[in-house]
Design a protein that fits this description.
Layout: H1 2-43, H2 45-58, H3 62-67, H4 69-78
Helix pairs in contact: 1-2, 2-4
Length: 79
């Protein structure tokens, strides 16, 4: 019985590590795509305007808005 419990514990640890890898991969993908979108928006006023519209309608948490405040100011200057 102990052997089975140990195997379960090992599998649970393995599962937790795999879930962590998925989270890291997802975060990395978001960073790359976000950087790409910002780069395009900084070069294209129409894209900047569209991105600002999406941010204004979808980002509602004060903490998030505070975090991106300088980026928003930068995009507003490019419209």
């Amino acid at each position: 019985m102990t052997d089975l419990r140990q195997q379960i514990a090992q599998k649970e640890d393995e599962l937790a590590r795999l879930k962590d890898r998925i989270k890291k991969q997802d975060a990395g993908q978001k960073i790359v795509i976000g950087g790409l979108v910002l780069s395009i928006a900084r070069e294209n006023p129409k894209i900047a305007e569209c991105l600002l519209g999406e941010i204004n309608s979808r980002v509602t948490r004060k903490e998030d808005l505070k975090r991106i405040e300088t980026m928003l100011d930068d995009l507003k200057q490019r419209c």
